[in-house]
Amino acid sequence: MESKKPNIIFIMADAVRARNLGCYGYHRNTSPNIDSLAKKGVLFENVFSSNNVSNKQFLSILGGKRVIAEGPLINYVSKKEIQGFFETGGVLFPEMLKKQGYKTYFLKDIYGWQKKGFDYYFKCASKEDKSNVKWRLINFSKKFPIFYKTLKYSFHNLVSKKLANKIRERKESEKVTREAIEIIKKSKKNPFFMWLYYGDTHLPYNVPSKFNNKFIANKKSKNLFKEISNKGMDKRIVDFLKVSFSRGDTIEDAIAQYDCAIAYVDSLVKRVVNALEKKNILENTIIFIFADHGESHAEHNIYFNHYGPYGTVYQVPLIIFGKGIPKNKRIKSFIQHEDLAPTIFNILNINHSPTLFDGGSLIPLMNGEKEKIRDHAFMVENSSIRKKIIRTKKYSYMESASKEDATCKVCNKIHQGVIELYDLENDPGENINIAKKNKKALIEMKLKLNKTIKDLKNLNEKRRINQVLSKI
Ligand SMILES: [Zn+2]
Ligand SMILES: [Zn+2]
Fold it and tell me: How far is the CA of 359 from the centre of ligand 2 (A)?
C-alpha cells in the first residue's frame, strides 16, 4: 500500500453557483473540464455556504466554524468573531497540515488572520495597484470620514470605472494559474496543500478575449439598467454594474458574460491538472473544486450580486477527486463548507478535537458507510439584510427579527417578507412565500432553526469553558 501523504489542492472560484455548471445540469457547456473531473470523482449535489460573503466563508473553510454573523451589517468576519474563534481554541486547518510536514500555499492576496498556517501567499496586486485611486480613497476616507461622505457620491462613478479596469488589467486568475504550475513543477519530497483562488468569476466577470464570445445571449430579455432604474438601488452598485457589463445591456447578456467567465476558469483548471500529470504527481493528489458562495442573476430582484437569503446565493458546487476518492458518484446529503477541514483530517488520520470543528468528514459518505451528515443547511445573511435561514429537502425558511432587520440596505426595501417560507418541491425558485398559508410547516422550520442556533451557541460556550479550564 502506498503510504505517501497526498498533495491537497483547493480550487475555489468566487461567486460560482452550482446551477451554472454542466455537471449540475446547466443548459450551456460552461465547464467541460470540471464535468469530466466530476465523473472521475464525487459530486455533492446539495452544498450550501453558511454565509454569503467570501471573508466569512474563510472562517468556515479554514477554521471549520459556522459563523453566526450578528451585529452590524458587514462584508467580513467581525473582529469580535475572530477573537472569539481564537480565544476558544480555534485552529486553522493549514496549521495542522504544516505539523504533518506539508508545505502550504495560498494563491491570491490574503490579509490578516487568514494568513495563519500558510508558508507562502501570492501577491496578485502589484505595488502600483496600491497607489491606485481605490487605495488612495480608502486611506482618505479613514482619515477624513465626514468630508469623504459628502464627496464620495461625486467620485463613485470614476472609482467604479477605475476599479473595474484595474481588476481586468490584473489578470489575476492567469497569474494564479502560472504560479500554481510553477509550484507544481518545483515540488519535491514534501507533500503540499495549495489553495487556488479564482476571482474572475466575481463581478466584473473578467473574461479574456479568447473566451469573451463563447456564449452569447440567445434569447431576448429585459434591459438590465431599465429594470433596476426604479428599484431605489445604491447608485454606486448600479455604476459598478454598468462598467462591469461591456457587451450588452440585457440581463441575458450579463448572464452570458458570467458563463464565459466560468468557461475561462474551467480552462485554467485543466492547465493545473495537466501540470500535475506532467510532473507525475496527479495520482498522489486530491483536488477539491468548489465556490465560496453563489450569485443572484436578477432572481428575487437581486441583480448580479450575492446578498439576500435565497438558494441562488448559497448553493455552491463541490467536487472531490483524486487519490483514494471513489469514481463517478453523486451524493445528496446536505453539506456545508465546515465539513472540508474534518474531511482532510480524516484523509490524513490527523487527530483533532471534534468539539473544535462544527462539520463532519465527507469520507464516510463517499465510501457509502453513511448516507448523510445532517438533514438541513443553516445559513446567515448579515451583509445587506439580517436573516437567518434553514433549509431542508422540502422547505426553506428564513426570518428577520423585525421589519427593519428585513430591509435590504442596497435597495431600501423588504424583498419577499420579514418571515419567509418556501415549498422547495413545488417552488424550487423560492418565489411564492407561503409563511401565512402553512403554519404547521412554519412552526416546524422555526423550531428547527432555533435548535440549530442554540446548539451552535452551546458548542461555542463549551469551547470557551474548556479553554478557560485548560489555563487554570
Ligand atoms: Zn466571494
Ligand atoms: Zn435589495
Answer: 31
How far does residue 2's CA lie from ligand 1's centre (Å)? Answer: 37
Q: How confident is the model at residue 134 (pLDDT cuts 50, 70, 90)?
A: low
Q: How far is the CA of 101 from the centre of ligand 2 (A)?
A: 47
Rounded-to-integer distance, Cα 359 and Cα 336, Å: 7
Would you state the cell numbers that stand for residue 13, as one nine-digit string? 472560484
Question: Does position 206 have pLDDT exceeding 60, yes or no?
Answer: yes
Are 331 and 371 in contact, with CB atoms under 8 Å apart? no
> Which amino acid is present at 442?
L
Residue whose C-alpha cell is 501540470: 275
- What are the domain boundaries of the chain? 7-374
Q: Tell whether the model's pLDDT for residue 129 goes beyond 70.
A: no
Residues 288/319, Cβ–Cβ less than 8 Å: yes
Q: What CA–CA distance (Å, rounded) separates 81 from 42?
A: 33
Torsion-angle region of 350 (φ positive above 0: left; ψ -120 to 50: alpha; else: beta): beta
Residue 175 CA to ligand 1 centre (angstroms): 18
What homologous superfamily is domain 7-374 in, according to CATH? Alkaline Phosphatase, subunit A (3.40.720.10)
Q: Where are the alpha helices (DSSP H) in 279-330?
A: 311-314
The H or E element containing residue 47 is strand 42-48
Q: What is the mean pLDDT of the chain?
A: 90
Ligand nearest to the Cα of 384, by number: 2
Q: Which ligand is nearest to the CA of 406?
A: 2
Q: From CA 368, how far away is CA 366, in angstroms rounded?
A: 5
Confidence of residue 145 (pLDDT cuts 50, 70, 90): low
Q: Dihedral, CA atoms, 377, 380, 381, 387, nearest 10 degrees?
A: 100
How many angstroms does the Cα of residue 278 sit away from the middle of ligand 2? 48
Is a pLDDT exceeding 50 seen at residue 303? Answer: yes
Residue ranges of alpha helices (H) inside 282-402 are: 311-314, 340-348, 363-366
CA–CA distance, 143 with 137 (Å, rounded to integer)? 10
376-421 pLDDT, tens per residue?
Answer: 999 999 999 999 999 999 999 999 999 999 999 989 999 999 999 9
Distance in Å, CA 312 to ligand 2 centroid: 14
Distance CA 273, CA 267 (A): 10
Rounded Cα distance between 252 and 245, Å, is 11
C-alpha cell at 137: 480613497
Paired residues of 8 in beta bridges? 193, 286
Q: Verify cis geometry, omega within 30 degrees of 0, for the bond prior to 204.
A: yes
Distance (angstroms) between ligand 2 centre and the Cα of 314 equals: 16
pLDDT at res. 355: 76
